[in-house]
Design a protein that fits this description.
Elements (H helix, E strand, L loop, with lengths): L1 H21 L3 H17 L1 H17 L4 H7 L3 H16 L7 E6 L5 E8 L2 E6 L4 H12 L3 E5 L5 H18 L6 E3 L6 H6 L8 E5 L2 H10 L12 E5 L5 H13 L8 E7 H17 L3 E4 L1 H6 L4 E2 L13 E7 L2 H11 L4 E5 L3 H10 L4 E4 L19 E2 L7 E2 L6 E8 L7
Parallel strand pairs: 3-4, 3-6, 4-5, 7-8, 7-12, 8-11, 9-10, 9-11, 12-13
Antiparallel strand pairs: 1-2, 2-16, 14-15
Helix pairs in contact: 2-5, 2-7, 3-7, 5-6, 10-11
Length: 418
C-alpha cells in the first residue's frame, strides 16, 4: 500500500502539472531546457561520479556487457545530453499549431490543432541519458512525465532529477512536471502502468522481457518496440567501399543498441567477390558469422545459421548472413524476419533504392547509410523518447510530434446547423 500511495501521489501531482505545462509558452519552455543544459555541463563531475557508483554496483550484480554499455556515461555523452536539449529548444514548438483549415459549405472553418498528450509514464533500463531526453521532449511538447529508470542507474538519475528541477524552477514551471520515481521496488512499475486516471500513455525502453510485460499488463496505451533485428542488404549494384564502411559501422560501432545491424543480406550476383571482403572486415572485428550454405562455401569461418538466427537480435559480436537472389528476395526476407525497426540497402540503383524504401515494412529505412542513424538525435528531433515499431500512434524515433495529438477545431460566425 505504501508503493500504491506513493505512485498515486505522483500521478495526481503529474496530472495537475500537465494542465500548467499545456498552457506554458514557448519561451518559458525553452528557458527551462537551456537552463537544464547549462546545469548538465556545470555538474559534469557529479554526474560522472554518480555514474561510476552505478557502474560498480552493476558489475557487482553481474550485468551483461550490453547493459553496462548502455549504462556508462562519458564526457562526450554528457555533452550530447546538453546538446540534445539545445536542439530541442531550437525546434519549432508544435503545441497550438493549426493545420488543414478549410471552409465548409455551412460557412464554418474546420481544422486541426496540435496539443499535448498529457501525462506520459516512461519506464526504462540502464540508460541515464533517457532521463534527459524524456524530460526535454516532454517539457517542449507541454507534457508532464513520470520517469521510472532502472535500479542500476538510480544514483545518476537522482542527480539528473535535481538538475531538471533546477531548470523547471528557474523557468517558473512546476517541478512535478518531471518526476523521477525514487523507489527501485518493481511494484512501482505495476502501479504506473495501471494508473489510467492519471497517465495517458506509457513508453517502455529496455529489454524484450520488460516491454512484453508492460504490453501485457498495461491498462494504458503503450508506444513500444520489442526487438531491434536490423538488416543491411548489399545490392548487386552496391559500391563495395560504401558497403564495407556501412556494415562496419552498423554492426560494430556499438553492440548493445537497438539500431545495430544483426543480419547481412548479399545479392547472389556479387556474393563471390563481395562476401569475402565483408567477412574479412567482420572477422577482423571479432564478429562471429552464422550463415547459409552459400555463405559457408565462400567464407570457411562461417558457422551454420539456423532459422532462429535470422529472427535473433544478438546484441553481441554475432551476425547472421544470407545470400539472396536479388532485391525482391531481400525485401521478402526482411519483411519475414525483421522486427520492423531499421533496415538499410547499399545500392547505386535508383529503382532498387526506391523499391526498398516503399516495400520494406519497417519504421526506418535507409539508403547507403548506416542503421546506426536511426536515432532521434541523428534525425534532427533533438532527442527521442523511444523507438516505435507500432503503426499507431507514432512510428520510428518518437520526438516532439510523437508526444502530441490532434484535436478538431472550428471557427464560425454565428452559423447553426440546418
Amino acid at each position: 500500500m505504501e508503493i500504491k500511495a506513493y505512485m498515486q501521489t505522483l500521478g495526481k501531482e503529474a496530472r495537475s502539472a500537465s494542465r500548467l505545462m499545456a498552457k506554458a509558452d514557448t519561451n518559458t519552455k525553452n528557458l527551462a531546457l537551456l537552463t537544464i543544459a547549462q546545469a548538465i555541463r556545470r555538474h559534469q563531475a557529479a554526474l560522472l561520479a554518480a555514474n561510476q557508483a552505478d557502474m560498480e554496483n552493476a558489475r557487482a550484480n553481474g550485468l551483461d556487457a550490453a547493459m553496462l554499455d548502455r549504462l556508462a556515461l562519458t564526457e562526450k555523452s554528457i555533452t550530447n545530453m546538453a546538446e540534445g536539449l539545445e536542439q530541442i529548444a531550437a525546434l519549432s514548438d508544435p503545441i497550438g499549431e493549426i493545420s488543414d483549415l478549410k471552409y465548409r459549405p455551412s460557412g464554418i472553418q474546420v481544422g486541426k490543432m496540435r496539443v499535448p498528450l498529457g501525462v506520459i509514464g516512461i519506464i526504462y533500463e540502464a540508460r541515464p541519458n533517457v532521463t534527459i531526453d524524456a524530460a526535454g521532449l516532454c517539457i517542449k511538447s507541454g507534457n508532464a512525465a513520470i520517469l521510472r529508470g532502472g535500479s542500476e542507474a538510480i544514483e545518476c538519475n537522482r542527480v539528473l532529477a535535481k538538475i531538471v528541477h533546477e531548470g523547471l524552477h528557474t523557468a517558473g514551471l512546476p517541478s512535478a512536471a518531471i518526476q523521477v520515481v525514487e523507489t527501485t521496488d518493481r511494484a512501482a512499475v505495476g502501479e504506473l502502468i495501471t494508473m489510467n486516471q492519471y497517465v495517458d500513455v506509457i513508453v517502455p525502453r529496455g529489454g524484450k522481457g520488460l516491454i512484453e510485460r508492460i504490453s501485457k499488463e498495461a491498462r494504458i496505451p503503450v508506444i513500444k518496440h520489442l526487438d531491434g533485428n536490423c538488416h543491411v542488404y548489399v545490392d548487386e549494384s552496391a559500391d563495395m567501399e560504401k558497403a564495407v564502411r556501412i556494415l562496419e559501422n552498423s554492426k560494430t560501432q556499438r553492440l548493445g543498441t537497438c539500431n545495430t545491424a544483426e543480419s547481412l543480406l548479399v545479392a547472389r550476383n556479387i556474393a563471390k567477390t563481395a562476401l569475402p571482403k565483408l567477412a574479412k572486415m567482420l572477422l577482423t572485428k571479432g564478429v562471429e558469422i552464422r550463415g547459409c550454405d552459400e555463405t559457408r562455401a565462400l567464407v570457411p569461418e562461417t558457422k551454420t545459421a539456423t532459422e532462429e538466427d535470422y529472427y535473433t537480435e544478438y546484441l553481441d559480436n554475432i551476425i547472421s548472413v544470407k545470400v539472396v537472389t536479388d532485391v525482391d528476395e531481400a525485401i521478402t526476407h526482411i519483411n519475414q524476419y525483421s522486427s520492423q525497426h531499421t533496415e538499410a540497402i547499399v545500392t547505386e540503383n535508383y529503382t532498387h533504392a526506391h523499391r526498398f524504401l516503399r516495400e520494406v515494412d519497417s519504421s526506418s529505412v535507409l539508403v547507403n547509410a548506416s542503421t546506426r542513424f536511426a536515432d532521434g538525435f541523428e534525425f534532427g528531433l533533438g532527442a527521442e523518447i523511444g523507438i516505435s515499431t507500432d503503426k499507431l500512434h507514432a512510428r520510428g524515433p518518437v520526438g516532439l510530434d510523437g508526444l502530441t495529438s490532434l484535436k478538431y477545431i472550428v471557427f464560425g460566425n454565428g452559423e447553426v446547423r440546418s
